[in-house]
């Protein structure tokens, strides 16, 4: 049977309602439709430090398939599962603050969704929290990101670190060169502090807006700290959820 | 180096190399046993990079079987890519296992998978990176036992000085027998020599140091002298009577690999008897997995791995009994789960098109056909009797069902091939394309892949001379000129790389010196275009005082003894010889599933056939 209602005209709520009340309207297109949206807060740990963003997406797809949870798939010649990560994590970083949105082609309750998924996770992923996002077709995750926080465990001892940080923060601008382009790092730093007990730690919150994203390795370079042997962990992705 | 030191060194170097995910392990379904909890530690090693090694089904089967034994453990190791190798050598980091990060030197047994010859220098490099002496004779009780198996070891001689024990044939049963023998030898405090002697009594195990080859004055192999009287005269390959349940808890890589899918073997062996095909001979007899077992395995494969693609593997998928019913059943069960099923190695007929039609979704990439030769005469010589008409009819059907691209596999370089036969490749490809143009116009594509014929040991072509790179180049030149224009695409192999494969395929024990010298001069990753260096191999030959053409272009006499004659695939040499003679007469040997021609398999595995009656074996039943 052909679905005659023009779905894109409806609001998210109406669509969900439609998904629940119209099991009779059944076509391939309808079957694959996004019926529910979940947001997962997760960690990417040591074992998956070297898994790229693309492979992370594939790992999530496999995790859902193992759990028997029906991810929604895109249309076209090679259907892809519909999911969204807030911000790609650079290779080699770990994270305790990742966020991903996942759309399902079926309506499930959070209590049946979460335990099945947890059982199917690979060693490098940990779920902290899962929530349902009512607005299925609301703004996508990457557009909500404003900043990200990082915790860096330093390999080398650096007793003059507090002083270096103060100098950096007191500078009006910190001009750096990245891939042949110069930019000012200073306005991207929202917060930067350290703990020089052993091992030394560096904590920072950097702006993460389109065209204005601070990189923790750039901070290390600006502080003249070696990037090798350091362990960088993203601890939080700050979202602007006012729009949601 | 201890495993904790290895871990801390890795911490330092991994961020500096390409694709560090190759070197970390820890994937979903990895089996990690605590080091102290097991008696015997075995490392399964594929001497290539992780990306390729993780697609080696044989390794995964053995991994699963060994780890089911509580007293034994199997861990994995692969060869690092060159950047990682440099970093490892700089930090004195030895080759280690992915599971527990123990150095390979602390394992009891190192088991190498050698499916093809171009891995030989990588084998040496792996031993070196593990910090072990390269030559078996220099290793002592303090070193792990080094064993090797896989299709290439049906001629083990070129690498025999480096390996302590070879495993000929299917590993499922014999690997456990080897572990048991190792354990009992250890319990009795046996010396390494005694251990090897005990292993020589295990069927299918070949201890090369117990034999000494002798050569005639003209350099041709004469015979093998047995140095240990307890060792068997010939080594018969091991097979399993029934295919054991396929592994389903497959390790799922975190990074992209060559075949990022779940493999499921549906059948072993092939009844077709293409005369160039090594796998077709060494994997006989044909044993099928029952449809019921396949469906059962598929049902658990998806929740066990999460893969979105399952590859149904065999040498000739269309020949699986009831393939149409199987695909129908798979479609009924798994349709709409966003699962893709791949079915490689299809015959050139309309049934294959029906099968692919049932499996392919909207996406119709390329449809692959392997006529191998373009003239009917040459196809009779290689025993792949299909007619041009059959190929064109199938091609028409494929374009009609919505595919735009047909991939054609051809083989050049058989000594009886004339320039007319080569020209026929271009002509036939154009005919296939014009079938497509008639149906879908200019969207039709034909991609032609040219392989080069390499005479393989244990096949009916083990006697023939290989073409020289000069002859191959001439044929390639013609095809590069002829196969041009809209809709046609040509791929080919470097003739020098083929020559290299031909050297090693039918090499004898003297070849080991060439391999060693080539490796010493820096040869590794020879299967990679950017690493293969032809001149280096020629230099290694001349340093070793060996004439390279002796192994390739020389046609062998029909009464010549071969360095691999003691390794028995179950197919009699007399039958191979008859097939060789028939090829010269362009005489076809029909598919043996209808009519057994007594290739030798049944008398060799009579008992096994008797214990496994029924239709899963394609050989006739035996009565006693």
Describe the structure in your own words.
The complex is a heterodimer of chains A (244) and B (624). Helices cover 25% and strands 31% of the residues of chain A. Chain A is an alpha+beta fold and 244 residues long. Chain A has two domains: 34-138, 2-Layer Sandwich (Alpha-Beta Plaits); 143-243, Alpha-Beta Plaits (2-Layer Sandwich). In chain A, strands 1, 2, 3, 4, 5, 8, 9, 10 and 11 form a nine-stranded mixed sheet that branches. In chain A, strands 6-7 form a two-stranded antiparallel ribbon. In chain A, a hairpin with a 5-residue loop joins strand 8 (189-195) and strand 9 (201-209). Chain A is elongated. Mean pLDDT of chain A is 85; it is low at 1-10 and 21-31. Chain B is α/β, with parallel strands linked by helices. Chain B folds into three domains: 3-236, Cobalamin-binding domain (Rossmann fold, 3-Layer(aba) Sandwich), CATH 3.40.50.280; 261-360 and 592-624, Transcription Regulator spoIIAA; 364-510 and 546-568, Transcription Regulator spoIIAA (2-Layer Sandwich). Chain B has helices spanning 3-13, 50-53, 57-67, 82-90, 120-129, 171-187, 192-200, 278-282, 291-305, 323-334, 350-359, 376-381, 388-400, 419-440, 469-482, 495-505, 511-520, 534-544, 573-584, 601-604, 606-611; strands spanning 40-46, 72-78, 109-113, 145-149, 165-167, 205-206, 211-215, 221-226, 235-236, 262-265, 267-268, 287-288, 309-313, 340-342, 366-372, 405-412, 445-452, 488-492, 567-568. A six-stranded mixed sheet of chain B has the order 2-1-3-4-5-6, with helices on one face. In chain B, strands 15-16-17-18 form a four-stranded parallel sheet. A three-stranded parallel sheet of chain B has the order 10-13-14, covered by helices on one side. The longest helix of chain B is centred in the last third of the chain and has 22 residues, at 419-440. Chain B is globular, with a radius of gyration of 24 Å. Chain B starts with a helix and ends in a 13-residue tail after the last helix. In chain B, 47% of the residues are buried. The model of chain B has no long low-confidence stretch (mean pLDDT 95). The A-B interface holds A 31, 47-52, 54-55, 58-59, 61-66, 68, 73, 77-79, 81, 91-92, 120, 122-124, 227-229 and B 11-12, 14-16, 19-21, 24, 26-28, 30, 252, 254-256, 260, 302-308, 336, 338, 362-363.
């Amino acid at each position: 049977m052909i679905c005659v209602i023009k779905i894109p005209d409806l609001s998210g709520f109406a669509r969900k309602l439609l998904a629940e009340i119209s099991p009779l309207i059944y076509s391939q297109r309808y079957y694959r439709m996004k019926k529910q949206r979940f947001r997962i807060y997760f960690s990417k740990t040591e074992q998956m430090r070297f898994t790229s963003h693309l492979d992370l997406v594939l790992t999530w797809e496999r995790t859902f398939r193992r759990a028997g949870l029906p991810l929604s798939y895109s249309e076209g010649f090679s259907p892809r599962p519909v999911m969204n990560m807030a911000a790609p994590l650079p290779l080699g970083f770990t994270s305790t603050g990742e966020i991903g949105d996942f759309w399902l082609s079926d309506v499930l309750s959070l209590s049946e969704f979460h335990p099945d998924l947890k059982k199917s996770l690979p060693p490098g992923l940990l779920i902290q929290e899962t929530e349902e996002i009512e607005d299925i077709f609301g703004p996508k995750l990457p557009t909500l990101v404003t900043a990200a926080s990082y915790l860096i465990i330093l390999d080398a001892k650096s007793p003059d670190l507090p002083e270096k940080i103060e100098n950096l923060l007191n500078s009006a601008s910190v001009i750096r060169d990245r891939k042949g382009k110069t930019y000012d790092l200073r306005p991207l730093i929202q917060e930067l502090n350290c703990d020089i007990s052993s091992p030394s730690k560096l904590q920072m919150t950097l702006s993460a807006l389109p065209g204005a994203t601070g990189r923790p390795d750039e901070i290390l370079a600006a502080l003249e700290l070696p990037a090798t042997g350091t362990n960088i962990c993203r601890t939080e992705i700050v979202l602007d959820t006012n729009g949601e | 180096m201890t495993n904790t030191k290895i871990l801390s060194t890795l911490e330092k170097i991994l961020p500096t190399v390409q694709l560090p995910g190759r070197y970390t392990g820890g994937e979903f379904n990895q089996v990690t046993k605590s080091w102290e909890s097991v008696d015997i530690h075995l490392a399964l090693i594929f001497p290539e990079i992780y990306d390729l090694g993780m697609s080696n089904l044989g390794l995964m089967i053995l991994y699963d079987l060994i780890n089911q034994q509580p007293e034994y453990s199997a861990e994995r190791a692969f060869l690092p890519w060159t950047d990682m190798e440099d970093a490892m050598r700089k930090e004195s980091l030895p080759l280690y296992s992915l599971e527990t990060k123990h150095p390979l030197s602390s394992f009891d047994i190192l088991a190498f998978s050698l499916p093809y010859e171009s891995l030989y220098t990588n084998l040496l490099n792996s031993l070196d990176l593990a910090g072990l002496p390269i030559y078996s004779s220099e290793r002592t009780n303090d070193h792990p036992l080094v064993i090797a198996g896989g299709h290439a070891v049906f001629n083990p001689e070129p690498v025999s000085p480096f390996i302590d024990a070879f495993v000929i044939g299917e590993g499922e049963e014999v690997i456990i027998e080897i572990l048991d023998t190792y354990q009992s030898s250890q319990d009795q405090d046996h010396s390494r020599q005694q251990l090897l002697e005990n292993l020589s009594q295990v069927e299918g195990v070949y201890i090369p140091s117990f034999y000494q080859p002798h050569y005639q004055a003209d350099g041709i192999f004469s015979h093998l002298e047995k140095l240990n009287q307890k060792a068997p005269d010939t080594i018969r390959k091991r097979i399993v009577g029934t295919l054991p349940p396929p592994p389903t808890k497959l390790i799922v890589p975190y990074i992209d690999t060559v075949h990022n899918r779940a493999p499921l073997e549906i059948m072993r062996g092939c009844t077709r008897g293409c005369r160039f095909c090594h796998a077709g001979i060494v994997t006989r007899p044909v044993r099928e997995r029952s449809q019921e077992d396949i469906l059962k395995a598929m049902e658990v494969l998806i929740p066990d791995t999460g893969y979105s693609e399952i590859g149904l593997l065999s040498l000739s998928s269309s020949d699986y009994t009831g393939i149409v019913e199987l695909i129908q059943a798979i479609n009924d069960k798994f349709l709409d789960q966003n699962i893709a099923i791949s079915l490689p190695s299809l015959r050139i007929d309309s049934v294959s098109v029906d099968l692919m039609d049932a499996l392919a979704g909207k996406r119709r990439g390329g449809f692959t056909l392997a006529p191998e030769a373009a003239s009917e005469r040459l196809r009779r010589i290689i025993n792949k009797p299909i007619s041009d008409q059959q190929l064109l009819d199938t091609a028409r059907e494929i374009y009609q069902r919505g595919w735009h691209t047909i991939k054609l596999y051809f083989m050049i370089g058989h000594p009886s091939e004339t320039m007319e036969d080569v020209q026929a490749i271009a002509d036939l490809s154009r005919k296939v394309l014009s079938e497509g143009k008639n149906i879908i116009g200019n969207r039709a594509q034909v991609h032609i892949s040219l392989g080069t014929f390499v005479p393989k040991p244990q096949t009916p072509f083990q006697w023939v001379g290989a073409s020289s790179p000069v002859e191959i180049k001439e044929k390639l030149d013609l095809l590069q000129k002829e196969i041009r224009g809209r809709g046609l695409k040509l791929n080919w192999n470097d003739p020098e790389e083929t020559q290299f494969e031909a050297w090693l395929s039918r090499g004898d024990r003297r070849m080991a010196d060439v391999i060693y010298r080539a490796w010493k001069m820096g040869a590794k990753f020879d299967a990679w275009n950017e690493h293969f260096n032809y001149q280096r191999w020629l230099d290694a030959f001349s340093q070793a005082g060996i004439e390279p053409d002796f192994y390739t272009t020389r046609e062998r006499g029909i009464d010549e003894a071969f360095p691999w004659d003691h390794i028995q695939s179950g197919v009699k040499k007399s039958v191979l010889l008859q097939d060789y003679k028939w090829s010269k007469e362009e005489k076809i040997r029909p598919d043996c599933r209808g009519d057994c021609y007594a290739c030798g398999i049944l008398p060799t595995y009579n008992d096994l056939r008797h214990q496994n009656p029924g239709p899963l074996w394609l050989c006739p039943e035996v009565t006693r």
